[in-house]
Automatic annotation (TrEMBL):
Keywords: ATP-binding, Cell inner membrane, Cell membrane, Hydrolase, Membrane, Nucleotide-binding, Translocase, Transport
Descriptive protein name: Taurine transport ATP-binding protein TauB
Family designation: Belongs to the ABC transporter superfamily.
Enzyme Commission number(s) of this protein: 3.6.3.-
EC top class, as a word: hydrolase
Molecular functions (GO terms): ATP binding; hydrolase activity
InterPro entries recorded: ABC_transporter_ATP-bind (IPR050166), P-loop_NTPase (IPR027417)
Signal sequence interval, chain numbering: none
Encoding gene, per UniProt annotation: cmpD_2
Naturally occurring in which organism (per UniProt): Klebsiella pneumoniae subsp. ozaenae
Amino acid sequence: MQTLLLKLWHETGKQVLLITHDIEEAIFMATELVLLSPGPGRVVERLRLDFSRRFVAGESCRSIKSDPRFIEQREYILSRVFDQREAFS
C-alpha cells in the first residue's frame, strides 16, 4: 500500500496528507513529517525528509529502510515521542 501511494503521488503530482501512528511508515513516505504533542495536539517539530523521493527515483524500499540515515531518523523520532509521553504523563 505504501509503494502504491508513493507511485500515485509521483505520477499525479498531487499533494498527499497522510496521518499515521506508524513511525517507520511516516519516515518512508513523508517529504515533511510533523510531530505533534499528546493532547492537545500541537506542532512540536517539523522534519524535511527525502526517503520517499529516493523511492520514486528508483531506489529499493529495502535499501532505503536499511540506510543508516533512515535508522537514525527513526531512533530520533522514537526518542522524541517517548520523551513527550513521559513529559505529559
